[in-house]
Design brief:
735 residues, alpha/beta, Rossmann fold, Serine Threonine Protein Phosphatase 5, Tetratricopeptide repeat, nine-stranded mixed β-sheet, 27 helices, TPR-like_helical_dom_sf, Tetratricopeptide repeat protein
Length: 735
């Protein structure tokens, strides 16, 4: 297998610790893939002159979050640059050889000559097909500055137009690829003159930078004296130029550096002067005053890019100065220069850990990179800042996001401590003084966060939400203790349990029960609990010994606890109505001794479930995880759960019942308390390591995407969700 120069160079650089800074300029064929790159090791910039090349680059570098890919090429001024190529369809159809079909050049004559060579003595049918390609273009230096590429380890150039970058950069390794012989002949002397050793490799060349031969101090002393005479005489500019060369030849000569700082300040080259102040020395007062004045003038005039350069240079000269770093960060955030902003944010949090804009900038990077540990650390900083430092809504949002991250995976002791601290912080955050549109969202996050209170899982027994009475499909009362003796129950292998108020039962009950009885391929029993049905049961017109009804005396109008969502308080006690099925689950599980499927009533069984029962035969609890949301309160979905009649299954339902009854006994609660309870109980049982969990397949068992109306679908259980158009159901599915 042939190893390209690019692969050789990367292998050499990746063998060292730390990130590798890469600049790649593509103006030729689409870049070949780079297999096997370690994730997160590359940083820098890839410029592609074609959209095809850009697409390949982004796909190839998806695991390198610090590598930016842009559709762009290099030019002296900002604008568009016109390049030339043959239409890609000619190459795809086999009408052109690959090297010529992939050429992208700045001079159309190059392609015309190639066309004539291909056509030989016959008519030139290709030149007329050459097409222009407009590519966004601009100077290299501002682009590198915005991306904060202070150094480049590897420069990769593909195609002749990229050669213009050679004399502006000083990378450790240069790789040339996909260039015509004429272009390679032009590049070779440029590289050699710049101090590179050039080796020919497969498909191009590779240049390694060689260290210069530096003169000794004795040889430089006369030149320093000459520079001083020039500065004092009429040749100050020449003296300054000579000082620059002397410092480049011997960067350790602090005496020469101080003189360069003084001369550059007097000449008005303030950024240069700042860059040469010897490390650890205070800034000369004339230089500091001039830089501050120039920064203020640029900022007042709205020249933020100029102000940023002064702030950045000052931050480099005064490391660890929080005030200066804050100026540099704010300028870069205002300019949208995310790469540079992140550098200053990282420096800032080392000296000012609670600096909010810096933490917010780092948080954005952690989220983009999928760095959950970094994201949690930044969110905790924001969530737990001093009272008044952060808007209450933002604080509660960060508290909830932090809790969500903690509660998604098994908790460590540190996570448990953070959990308690976050719940306390949410409880202490006042939402009542906010305007209504903000107050609703703030309460929403606050109540979700309070639902993570570990004390809600205490083992004492709060008052029950519901005391059910049971009857069969004909309305005959049945004692729960006697239900197990009924023939349908004795032979049942699975129990379906739903609970809803009379209105929901009338809307969905018949379709739900009919779908279960029609499609369930194992003996089953359906328990339909009518919340508040003690005052009168709705008539469904279903008569089947497998159906059991239950009802209670729940009175919605007497509920004091108010349920809240992001748009405000609920007019009816939705949280209670959603939770009662789970509080009944433990009683049903114990009485019938069969696995219980607890679900929403607005759900239809569309196919058998014997295979699903066999798949989860070893599980105590099977839950529905919503991979589309990592938020506490929606990560586990309450529309479907299956509990086995095992000690661990019974313990899970018992804990969930106590959690819900305790949470719903308070004055306010999130309407999503049932889903919060599922996640809190899952966490509690993960810690005990005695409960075996399974997960429904959201590609086939249950849908976590909403259907507004019926459409063919692959799901075993079709969840209809609120607002589903029942009239769209096929007649056979309406019961």
């Amino acid at each position: 297998m042939v190893t390209t120069g690019y692969e050789q160079a990367l292998g050499h650089l990746l063998a060292r610790p730390g990130p590798v800074a890469v600049l790649e300029i593509g103006a030729g064929p689409p870049r070949p893939p780079s297999p096997g790159l370690p994730a997160g090791r590359l940083q820098g910039l890839i410029l592609e002159a074609t959209r095809e090349g850009l697409s390949v680059a982004r796909q190839d570098m998806a695991a390198q979050p610090d590598l930016t890919c842009l559709h762009r090429t290099i030019a002296a001024t900002e604008g568009e640059r016109q390049l030339w190529r043959f239409p890609p369809r000619l190459l795809a159809a086999g009408h052109l050889p690959r090297p010529i079909g992939e050429m992208l050049v700045s001079d159309r004559a190059v392609l015309v000559a190639a066309a004539r060579r291909l056509c030989g003595e016959g008519p030139d049918v290709l030149s007329g097909l050459i097409e222009a390609v407009a590519v966004p273009a601009g100077p290299m230096e501002p682009l590198l500055y915005r991306q904060d590429l202070a150094r480049i380890d590897l420069l990769r150039l593909r195609g002749a137009p990229a050669l213009e970058a050679l004399d502006r950069l000083n990378p450790e390794i240069i790789v040339l690829e996909a260039m015509e012989p004429e272009a390679m002949a032009l590049a070779a002397p440029l590289l050699i003159r710049a101090g590179y050793r050039l080796d020919t490799v497969a498909h191009g060349a590779i240049g390694h930078r060689q260290g210069p031969q530096r003169p000794g101090a004795a040889e430089l002393r006369p030149l320093a004296e000459m520079a001083e005479r020039m500065l004092r005489g009429a040749c100050a500019e020449d003296g300054l130029l000579l000082l620059r060369h002397l410092v480049a030849l011997d960067p350790s000569d602090d005496t020469c550096r101080r003189r360069l700082v003084e001369a550059a300040t007097q000449a008005g080259h303030l950024l240069e002067a700042l860059s040469h102040v010897p490390r650890g020395e205070a800034l000369p007062r004339p230089l500091l005053d001039a830089v501050v004045a120039s920064f203020n003038a640029a900022r007042v005039a709205g020249r933020l890019d100029e102000a940023e350069r002064y702030a950045a240079a000052l931050a480099a000269a005064r490391p660890g100065n929080a005030a200066v770093l804050d100026l540099a960060l704010s300028c870069n955030l205002a300019l949208g220069q995310r790469g540079r902003a992140l550098r200053f944010a990282r420096e800032l949090v080392t000296v000012a850990p609670d600096h909010l804009p810096a933490q917010a900038a780092l948080l954005e990077q952690h989220v983009a990179r999928g760095d959950r540990a970094g994201e949690l650390a930044s969110r905790l900083r924001l969530a737990l800042t001093a009272t008044g430092a952060l808007h209450p809504l933002r604080r509660l949002h960060e508290i909830h996001k932090s809790l969500s991250l903690i509660l998604q995976t098994p908790m460590t002791p540190a996570d448990r401590r953070s959990l308690g601290t976050l719940v306390d912080a949410a409880r202490a955050t006042d939402t009542e003084a906010l305007p209504a549109e903000l107050r609703h969202w703030a309460r929403h996050y606050r109540l979700l966060s309070l639902a993570a209170e570990p004390a809600l899982l205490a083992q004492d027994s709060p008052p029950p939400l519901s005391r059910p009475g049971f009857c069969d499909a004909k309305g005959k009362r049945v004692a729960l203790a006697h239900i197990r003796r009924r023939p349908a129950v004795r032979t049942a292998e699975i129990v379906f349990l739903v609970a809803a108020d009379a209105a929901y039962v009338r809307l969905y009950g018949r379709a739900y029960v009919a779908s279960v009885l029609r499609h369930c391929d194992v003996p089953c029993v359906v328990v339909l609990h009518v919340i508040g049905g003690g005052a009168g049961m709705p008539e469904l017109g279903l008569d089947d010994p497998r159906i059991l009804f239950s009802a209670d005396g729940f009175e919605a109008g007497k509920v004091a606890c108010i349920g809240h969502d992001s748009d405000g308080p609920r007019a009816i006690p939705v949280a209670h109505l959603q939770s009662i099925r789970f509080t009944l689950g433990a009683e049903i599980l114990a009485a019938l001794g069969r696995p219980v499927i607890i679900s929403d009533i607005d759900l239809l069984l569309q196919s058998g479930l014997r295979d699903m029962l066999e798949q989860h035969a070893g599980a105590d609890v099977v839950l529905n995880r919503n991979a589309g949301s990592d938020s506490f309160g929606s990560h586990l979905t309450a529309n479907l759960a299956m509990i086995a009649p095992t000690p661990a299954g019974a313990a899970f339902l018992g804990d969930l019942r106590r959690y819900l009854e305790r949470a719903l006994a308070g004055p306010h609660v999130t309407r999503w308390i049932d889903q919060c309870g599922l996640q809190m109980c899952w966490q509690a049982h993960l810690a005990s390591a005695t409960t075996r969990f399974g997960w429904f397949d959201t590609a086939s068992d249950i849908n976590n995407v909403m259907y507004r109306s019926y459409a063919p679908n692959p799901f075993r259980f079709l969840s209809l969700y609120h607002g589903f158009d029942m009239a769209s159901l096929p007649e056979a599915m309406r019961g």
